[in-house]
Amino acid sequence: MKQFQSEEAKTRIDYCTTNQLIYRLKENSPQVFEANLKLRGLNATHYIYYKKGKIYDEGIDEKNIRWKEDEFLNHYQSNKWVIDYVDSPIING
Q1: What predicted TM-score, i.e. pTM, was given to this entire model?
Q2: pLDDT 10s digits, 36-84
Q3: What separation in angstroms does the CA of 76 have from each of 1, 6, 7, 58, 93?
Q4: CA 3 to CA 1: how far, in whole Å?
Q5: Backbone phi, then psi, for 10, in 5-degree steps?
Q6: With 0-12 CB in 10 A as exposed, 13-18 as middle and 19+ as buried, what is 38?
Q7: What is the signed CA dihedral for 7, 24, 75, 42, rounded to 10 degrees?
Q8: Which of 32, 10, 38, 41 is nearest to 93 (CA)?
């Protein structure tokens, strides 16, 4: 997945819940978010975007998952995220 086109396209957004992340993904579809999942002091980077009712998620393990919205919410329901960057729409998606 191509994450970013340029340094200028990156912007900082703050801490959010999984519900808030989903809302932001839908409002900014199909932009790619670089979001850090907060796990008891550890960070797990995910590249995430929303397209046609699905959440596309690539984690640091390079595993690509296509989630239904409710599946993503159930899986990460009590987690917090820091959205580091939002980039222009994906090229090959």
Answers
A1: 0.77
A2: 998 877 888 999 999 999 999 998 888 899 999 999 999 999 899 998 8
A3: 22, 29, 29, 14, 24
A4: 6
A5: -80, 140
A6: middle
A7: 40
A8: 32
